[in-house]
Amino acid sequence: MSGFLSKIIWSELARKFYLLILVFIGFFALMNWVVMPWYVNAGGIVVVPDLRGKTVQQAKSTLDSLDLQLEVAGTKSSKFPPNTVLTQNPEPDDTVKHGRRIYVVVSGGAQLTTVPNLLGHSQREAQFMLERAGLELGNVSSDSSSEFPQNVVMSQSIQPGMKVPQGTFVSLVISLGVVGPNEVSTPDVVGKPLSEAQKILTSAGLSIGKITFQPNSQLVPNTVLEQYPRPQEIVPKGTNVNLFVSSFAAQSEN
After folding, report:
1. How crowded is residue 169: how many other Cβ atoms within 10 Å of its Cβ?
2. How far apart are CA 148 and CA 125, in angstroms?
3. Which of 3, 110, 124, 229 shows the smallest number of beta carbons within 10 Å?
4. Strand 240-247 to strand 224-228: parallel, antiparallel, or no bridges (unpaired)?
5. Pick the CATH number of 112-175 from 3.40.50.150, 3.30.420.40, 1.10.287.470, 3.30.10.20
6. Do the beta carbons of residue 191 and residue 228 sit within 8 Å?
7. Are the beta carbons of 192 and 230 closer than 8 angstroms?
8. What's the gap between Cα 32 and its chain centre?
9. Which residues are registered as beta bridge partners of 170?
10. pTM metric for this prediction
11. Tell me, which fold does domain 46-107 have in CATH?
């Protein structure tokens, strides 16, 4: 008898439990699909738009159309143009009441930095000075000079002391020193096809020396890997330039 009574009690509890779950599901569905849509459509709340990347004026126009207010909470240096919205609070797709203030942080533009004087410094020193100033090393070329000794910066693309945005590239010209009438600066042919490298070297008054082929699966065959003498070395005209060249498989040396 007691076992039968226990079954009845547990059955009644289970029925009430399932009924409670059904009531909860029904309440959730009612709120999610009926009450909230009605509240939104009735004008009680509005979905916050994504203002990031817009100008302040564009963001204000967007918020005005939704009866929201814009307030600039601060500025931050960035690569984006000045007055571009970077962040916002509340976040996009949040729901807020009409008239709510939307706080944004806008770009103040790139932070300016002073170009250092690189003249007379080695390329390595110049690169370190540029990095410390928040600048980037651009193209590096070389030229003869009677004023600057060999292997130092003889000119730079942006004058020292100028204010430029951080991240600006500064190109350098490295001095070869005084090049005699029977001397030449070795051209840089690393990374070039062998046929092109040979033309460049012979046009500069140099000779093709020993060519050594090395297997390399990452580069196209017949690409120059290394050269000796090194690029920009001052050597007598007619000097042999030895080349190391990529290949699919080991080839015989010339």
Report:
1. 13
2. 16
3. 3
4. antiparallel
5. 3.30.10.20
6. no
7. no
8. 42
9. 137
10. 0.50
11. Trypsin Inhibitor V; Chain A (3.30.10)
